[in-house]
From TrEMBL, chain A:
<protein>
    <recommendedName>
        <fullName>AP complex subunit sigma</fullName>
    </recommendedName>
</protein>
<dbReference type="InterPro" id="IPR011012">
    <property type="entry name" value="Longin-like_dom_sf"/>
</dbReference>
<dbReference type="InterPro" id="IPR016635">
    <property type="entry name" value="AP_complex_ssu"/>
</dbReference>
<dbReference type="GO" id="GO:0012505">
    <property type="term" value="C:endomembrane system"/>
</dbReference>
<keyword id="KW-0653">Protein transport</keyword>
<keyword id="KW-0813">Transport</keyword>
<dbReference type="InterPro" id="IPR022775">
    <property type="entry name" value="AP_mu_sigma_su"/>
</dbReference>
<feature type="domain" description="AP complex mu/sigma subunit">
    <location>
        <begin position="2"/>
        <end position="135"/>
    </location>
</feature>
<comment type="similarity">
    <text>Belongs to the adaptor complexes small subunit family.</text>
</comment>
From TrEMBL, chain B:
<dbReference type="InterPro" id="IPR016024">
    <property type="entry name" value="ARM-type_fold"/>
</dbReference>
<feature type="region of interest" description="Disordered">
    <location>
        <begin position="614"/>
        <end position="637"/>
    </location>
</feature>
<dbReference type="GO" id="GO:0006886">
    <property type="term" value="P:intracellular protein transport"/>
</dbReference>
<protein>
    <recommendedName>
        <fullName>AP-1 complex subunit gamma</fullName>
    </recommendedName>
</protein>
<keyword id="KW-0472">Membrane</keyword>
<keyword id="KW-0968">Cytoplasmic vesicle</keyword>
<keyword id="KW-0813">Transport</keyword>
<dbReference type="InterPro" id="IPR008153">
    <property type="entry name" value="GAE_dom"/>
</dbReference>
<dbReference type="InterPro" id="IPR050840">
    <property type="entry name" value="Adaptor_Complx_Large_Subunit"/>
</dbReference>
Length: 138, 889
């Protein structure tokens, strides 16, 4: 998750582990490529061995790197689903919410993705544990 | 003392520069270390959160790893949650710290009070599990797949994926479990089951060998079950909470379709079983939403991936056609992607969309262009190469640099394979070289040159095309273009002159170039590309070749060649020095520098043999004694048929096994000459050369030196393939070789060429009337006479040998003759024999061939432009009109 200025707001890695430096370099390249694309262009581009699927919401870019035989349109749909869940949780989600509560976004994401595979897309199912815990802690 | 995460974020956001940010982070990291050392319990949870934030910003956080473990070991849920999150983000499976966490994980997996803790542990395990952990915890995961709570089941299924990925041996125990999940009531669990089945069925590469697809076979009975699930999903409103734009759980549908593809591939029965549902999906899904398109996209891939019936495929291809025509770039992208995958299955169907695909090559979007290009490559054939190459070249101009090498190679390959004709081939490769010369491989350029050498019709055209290219882009031209172009100009340079190049080809812009311009171009290339010695080498050779083609420019060309005698590049220096030496052998220079023969060896030899037979058959064959036709003789007399043998620079390697008996003696004598040259014999013009020109150039000593050398060489003379019935004039030379080699070499053959200076080129005497001679021009003590002969078969063509003689008491240098004719005539000028007219009778000959298209109605007429430098360096330029051709010409 990256904003328009190219600042990373949230990042999660599944398949392979990268060192801090590799990670920075990869994020830099991917983000630069993404930001250089215009609205009219399609939401996919290739980078190294990955295919990047991205979607822009206001000033935030959501990017997912997938392998070659993934269904790009479904990934796109998943991003939207994720944003809807965030929206439901935060209520009119904005960059500030994500920035100030990265751990919460991680929790939500963990309910949706596991090891790069979709766990669930049912908003109620996803938010139930998260909100339950929210009540416990506060 | 410790700030909150939100405050840290605020502080970082407030930083204006990267340095400031680094400072804030460094300070906070120090504070964190301090807190960790003090075993601060109450803020541990918050500190790890800050650590993750720092990690996300790209700063080192290894010092906090232990803290996450402590959090996990804690009992409170919020702590555990943060601990596991930190574990997933900050650590990876390679770290040994991870071993310490296995126990905590096991405990949490078996927690019976709080299913969310179990969920947490499953997520963490699924994300970071290593092989050891997989082995230890696999039974727990397996057990959890039967857990009554769907929340646990779905996560356990996905966690199992990681486990079997890490330890393929464990795969077997999950095979059945995965299939059971398909019948689960929860769609999330079904999704997890399908994902796990996919993973299990795909297996690891090594595993497929062992089980050999048996997993796939085992899963095939589940095809009806899968179809049933899929069909239920097609009913609207089955499960509103998974509904996206009127479509129920597209993610699950996509997964199912993919699983079906895997099961149906190469298996007709299963393919038949699923074709109904596939048709239903393909025709019922609404394509106006992204979710629907995602399903259609997957369905099309499945239809094309399995052994489906024709009707279904037509349906799929039609969907792709609709996708391609869609205005949404995303849809077009996936359409191209799919077409690329199915092109091997059904080329014909893809060809139907060619126009649209080519349109996509021009798209502004690089992702679409790239996809479209890959498709285009596989669609090219003889019928569409012209249009497609144009498109590809257009794209080459705008493509990314990283993409160019591949694209260039592909275009070159396509051109070579499918080129409809040679001019087109040349044009296209030239265009490629101009746009991406740096990526054109040497072999491609070389193949082009061989082809050119074999295509005389294109020589002039190629020279003009390359000249234009170089003149337009002298700086940006890549070495591949430079070397190729310079080679062509060196070989066919004189054809650049409008008077020599013959008619322009259709659609070709005219080119006005003088011989001086050509040399200037070479000089400029040397200035601009001094450091690339490959280019310099080519320029030197081209300059040398041009000395025989552009007689008026010899001095300048020689200066170019001589400039590199002290070059630090060995090859450049060698060429420069050796070519310089050639000027000492004026007599043979023009033959040394003959055109390269066609390089197709088989073809060349055949032509040569035929030629020899024909020559032997005529009553008075031309004496093919290239080494004898000296400075004063017309070089054209020896060329062009014999050029193969005469071209030493190019033809030497062909002598090795050349079974061309008739040409052999000539070749042999040339070898002698070359040996003399390379052996460093004192630069003495062999005496034969002095017969007409340059009196006093040879001395007795020189004669002796040369003859000695020749004698030595001729010692091996008889070893040359026996000169089976050679031309009559050659007979004495080979017969006498053993007895008196010197005489045969110096005496015999020489007599003929000298006479040829004054008479038109020898031709079968019976076929040709004696030439008519007219005086074309006479001024400043110079006399130019034209010896005219009609072409034996075509009376419209007149061969003219111009001989200019100097009757002054001083030498005349830089002599050039240019000839222009009216539009209805065509003229070809061969290079002159030289540009120097020695005092008292020195002469230069030049051969012209004029074709009068209105022969019989209009008389031959020419305009001459003669330039020369007389004694005292005074240069003259004379114009003259020749209209005194005898009637009938």
């Amino acid at each position: 998750m990256v904003n328009k200025q190219g600042q990373t707001r949230l990042a999660k890695y599944f398949a392979e582990f990268l060192t801090t430096d590799e990670r920075r370099a990869l994020e830099g390249e991917v983000v630069r490529k993404c930001l250089s694309r215009t609205d009219k262009q399609c939401s996919f581009y290739e980078h190294r061995q990955y295919k990047i699927v991205y979607r822009r919401y206001a000033s935030l870019f959501f990017m997912i790197g997938v392998d070659d035989d993934e269904n790009e349109l479904a990934v796109l749909e998943f991003i939207h689903c994720f944003v809807e869940v965030l929206d439901k949780h935060f209520g009119q989600v904005c960059e500030l919410d994500i920035m100030n509560e990265p751990e919460m976004v991680h929790y939500i994401l963990d309910e949706m993705l596991l090891n790069g595979q979709i766990v669930d897309t049912n908003k109620a199912n996803i938010l139930e544990p998260v909100q339950l815990l929210e009540q416990v802690t506060t | 003392m410790s700030i909150r995460l939100r405050e840290l974020i605020k502080a970082v956001r407030g930083c204006k520069t990267a340095a400031e940010e680094r400072e804030v982070i460094a300070k906070e990291s120090a504070a964190l270390r301090e807190a960790f050392r003090e075993q601060d319990q109450s803020y541990r949870h918050r500190n790890v959160a800050k650590l993750m934030y720092i990690h996300m910003l790209g700063y080192p956080t290894h010092f906090g790893q232990m803290e996450t473990l402590k959090l996990i070991a804690g009992s409170g849920f919020p702590e555990k949650r943060m601990g596991y999150l930190g574990l997933m983000i900050l650590l990876d499976e390679r770290q040994e710290v991870l071993m310490l966490v296995t126990n905590s994980l096991k405990m949490d997996l078996n927690n019976t009070k709080n299913m969310y803790i179990v969920g947490l542990a499953l997520v963490a395990l699924g994300n970071i599990c290593s092989a050891e952990m997989a082995r230890d915890l696999a039974p727990d995961v397996e057990k959890l797949m039967d857990c009554p709570a769907p929340y646990i089941r779905k996560k356990a299924a996905l966690c199992a994926i990681r486990v079997v990925k890490k330890v393929p041996d464990l795969l077997e125990q999950f095979v059945d479990k995965a299939a059971e999940l398909l019948n689960d009531r929860s769609q999330a669990v079904q999704l997890g089951g399908a994902t796990l089945m996919l993973q299990v069925a795909r297996g690891e590469p090594g595993l497929i060998l062992e089980l050999d697809g048996s997993v796939v076979a085992k899963y095939r009975p589940f095809v009806p079950a899968l179809c049933r699930v899929l069909r239920s999903l097609l009913q609207p409103g089955v499960s509103p909470e998974h509904d996206i734009g009127g479509i129920t759980n597209p993610f699950l549908q996509v997964k199912m379709l993919r699983l079906l593809r895997l099961l149906g591939r190469g298996h007709t029965e299963s393919s038949d079983a699923m074709s109904d549902i596939l048709a239903q999906v393909a025709s019922n899904i609404e394509a106006n939403r992204n979710a629907g398109n995602a399903i259609l996209y997957e369905a099309v891939q499945t239809i094309m991936g399995i052994e489906s019936i024709g009707g279904l495929r037509v349906l799929a291809i039609n969907i792709l056609g609709r996708f391609l025509a869609n205005r949404d770039n995303n849809i077009r992208y996936v359409a191209l992607n799919t077409l690329a995958k199915v092109v091997s299955v059904d080329t014909q169907a893809v060809q139907r969309h060619r126009a649209t695909i080519v349109e996509c090559v021009k798209d502004a979007d690089v992702s679409i262009r790239r996809r479209a290009l890959e498709l285009v490559y596989s669609l090219v054939n003889e019928a569409n190469i012209r249009t497609l190459t144009r498109e590809l070249l257009d794209y080459l101009a705008v493509s990314d640099t990283e993409f160019k090498p591949d694209l260039t190679a592909k275009i070159c390959m396509l051109i070579q394979r499918f080129a409809p004709d040679r001019r087109w081939h040349l044009d296209q490769l030239l265009a490629v070289m101009l746009q991406a010369g740096a990526f054109v491989k040497d072999e491609v350029a070389r193949a082009l040159l061989v082809q050119l050498a074999n295509t005389p019709d294109l020589h002039a055209y190629a020279a003009r095309a390359f000249y234009r290219a170089l003149a337009a882009h002298p700086d940006t031209a890549a070495p591949s273009l430079l070397t190729t172009a310079v080679w062509v100009i060196g070989e066919y340079g004189e054809m650049l002159l409008p008077s020599m190049g013959g008619p322009l080809l259709e659609g070709e812009p005219p080119l006005a170039v003088s011989d001086g311009d050509i040399v200037s171009l070479l000089e400029m290339l040397l200035r601009r590309h001094r450091s690339e010695h490959v280019v310099v080498e080519h320029v030197i050779t081209a300059a040398m070749k041009l000395t025989a083609r552009l007689p008026a420019q010899v001095a300048r060309l020689r200066a170019i060649i001589g400039r590199f005698t002290a070059s630090s590049q060995l090859e450049v220096q060698t060429r420069s020095t050796e070519y310089g030496k050639v000027f000492a052998h004026e007599r043979i220079r023009s033959q040394l520098l003959e055109r390269m023969p066609a390089l197709d060896e088989a073809e060349y030899l055949k032509a040569n043999n035929l030629d020899g037979a024909a020559a032997a058959g005529t009553s008075a064959p031309p004496p093919r004694q290239p080494n004898g036709s000296s400075g004063g003789a017309a070089p054209a007399a020896a060329a062009p048929k014999a050029s193969g043998a005469a071209d030493l620079l190019g033809g030497l390697d062909m002598l090795g096994g050349a079974p061309a008996p008739v040409a052999a003696p000539a070749v042999k004598s040339l070898v002698d000459d070359l040996d003399a040259l390379l052996g460093g014999v004192p630069a003495a013009a062999p005496p034969a050369a002095s017969a007409t020109a340059a009196p006093g150039a040879s001395t007795a000593a020189a004669v002796a030196a040369v003859s000695d050398d020749l004698l030595n060489l001729l010692g091996v003379g008889p070893a040359v393939p026996p000169a089976a019935p050679p031309a009559p004039t050659l007979a004495p030379s080979s017969a006498a070789a053993a007895v008196d080699p010197l005489a045969s070499i110096l005496g015999g053959p020489v007599a003929q060429p000298i006479s040829s200076t004054l008479t038109p080129p020898p031709a079968p005497a019976s076929a040709l009337p004696a030439p008519t001679t007219i005086v074309a021009w006479q001024q400043h003590g110079l006399v130019m006479s034209f010896a005219l002969t009609k072409h034996p078969t075509n009376p419209a063509v007149t061969e003219v040998v111009s001989t200019t003689t100097n009757n002054n008491q001083t030498d005349v240098t830089d002599f050039t003759l240019q000839v222009a004719v009216p539009k209805f005539m065509q003229i070809r000028l061969d290079p002159a024999s030289g540009s120097l007219l020695a005092a008292r009778g020195g002469s230069v000959t030049q051969r012209l061939s004029v074709a009068n298209s209105q022969h019989g109605t209009k008389q031959l007429v020419m305009r001459l432009r003669i330039t020369f430098t007389a004694a005292g360096g005074q240069s003259h330029e004379e114009m003259a009109e020749v209209s005194n051709f005898p009637p009938g010409y």
